[in-house]
Amino acid sequence: MSQVHKSETSEDRMVEILSKLPPKSLMRFKCIRKSWCTIINSPSFVAKHLSNSVDNKLSSSTCILLNRCQVHVFPDRSWKQEVFLSMIYLSIDSDKENLHYDVEDLNIPFSMEDHDDLAIHGYCNGIVCVIAGKKFLLCNPGTGEFTQLPDSPLLRPFSKGRFGLETNFKGLGFGYDSKAKEYKVVRIIENCDCEYSDGEETYYERIVLPHTAEVYTTVANSWKEIEIDVTSDTDPYCIPYSCSVYLKGICYWFANDNGEYIFSFDLGDEVFHKIELPSRREYDFKFYGLFLYNESIASYCSRYEGDSKLFDIWVMEDSVEVKRISWTKLLTVGPFKDIEYPLTLWKCDQLLMLAAYGRATSYNSSTGVLKYLHIPPIINWVIDYVKSVVPVK
Fold first, then answer.
1. How far is CA 106 from CA 161, 254, 341, 351, in A?
2. Strand partners of residue 264
3. Closest C-alpha among 132, 128, 22 to residue 65
4. Contact at 8 Å (CB) between 144 and 130?
5. For the CA atoms of the chain, what is the radius of gyration?
6. 130, 189, 183: which is closest to 165 by C-alpha?
7. Do 351 and 363 contact (CB within 8 A), yes or no?
8. Where is the F-box associated beta-propeller type domain positioned along the sequence (predicted)?
9. Which residues contact 242 (CB under 8 A, 6 or more apart)?
10. Where in the chain are the domains?
11. From residue 317, how far is each of 265, 324, 327 by CA, in Å?
12. Strands 261-266, 250-255: pairing kind
């Protein structure tokens, strides 16, 4: 009995040690021992490692995952574009004065054409959903693994003719369905009825039809079409921004069609909803986007004061008991010059913002100190990224 207990204790200790290591180290260790590979690939270990990564993320620090490009121009005027994913680690001293940041470039061998762009469109548990050119991929930057999603049955190339149906990608969400215990991608498709002529006179008429949607599941590795229910509080002609925010099984988009509101999708029930933004007494304030704050959805609105901007930060509170959503204004900051919009709030009083030309700034709302960060320009980003060994296939 003592030997069995000792063996179990030894294995438990091994699991405990491995679960605290970074993903890159674990990927190397999988090649050392078969038993280690079995442990690291097991769902229980993946969950334990993710839990440790979330718990070990200090409240005084944050990690930004961003994409950036570097263009090489050759003597014959041809050019080639290199695409990078980078992680930026931000931390701050206890005295709230000294801000530190480190940049780590990630080497992920995406298969891309020279002129393709890379954009991050969703994030959950260490996995990001990205678009590389015309390809949709799931990628784990921590392990360097990625997989391309199958072609969509709804997104079809437009063929020239007298009449045609034009389909465009309008919104993408990615997250975890805890009911089905699988990851899902939801994609909103804009449909347009087009008519044109290639004769002596060319005309073009574009009629917007109700949007459709499709869901990809990692288990089935396929897409299925779903309806946007026109009888509910959703809008079949919604125009969400393409980048989504995921929280607790729901994807959220900021939408600005016939007013400003939030469009959401429950990954478990696979149902869309429309969420009203807070009413504003100040007519000049206008809402623009969403971000996460302390396990809640936050939104910001802004207005101009001369050549500067003021920002209001609002936090959404979801009361499950009474099934209603309310908003609380957290703070007002500004006026700022050359500041585009907020990215996130971290360490309660630190507001990370995007300035002109993709420059990042950090503003201390308690002291009023604004600092520019000397990091690569931010093109597309994920805030509060956590490394994991969650597989993408």
1. 44, 29, 26, 26
2. 252, 273
3. 128
4. no
5. 23
6. 189
7. yes
8. 91-333
9. 119, 121, 169, 170, 171, 172
10. 9-60
11. 17, 9, 6
12. antiparallel
Phi, psi of 57 (to 5 degrees): -70, 110
Query: What is the reported pTM?
Result: 0.86
Q: Which two tokens stand for residue 50?
A: 């993710």
Side-chain half-sphere CA neighbours of 206 within 13 A:
8
How is residue 317 written in tokens? 């509170």
Residues in the chain: 393
Q: Which residues of 141-170 are buried (b: 16+ CB within 10 A; e: fewer)?
A: bbbebbeebeebebeeeeeeeeeeebbebb
Q: Report which residue type is found at 94.
A: S
Helix (H, G, I), strand (E, B) or coil at 357: helix
pLDDT in tens, the chain (393 residues): 444 444 456 778 888 999 999 998 999 999 888 888 999 999 999 999 999 888 876 555 788 888 766 667 788 877 776 667 888 888 877 665 677 788 888 877 666 665 567 788 889 999 999 888 788 999 999 898 999 999 888 887 665 555 667 787 888 999 999 999 999 999 988 887 776 665 566 566 667 777 889 999 999 999 999 988 655 555 555 566 657 899 999 999 988 766 788 989 999 999 998 888 887 665 667 888 899 888 899 999 998 888 899 999 999 987 554 467 889 999 999 999 999 999 888 777 889 899 988 888 989 888 888 988 887 777 778 888 999 999 998
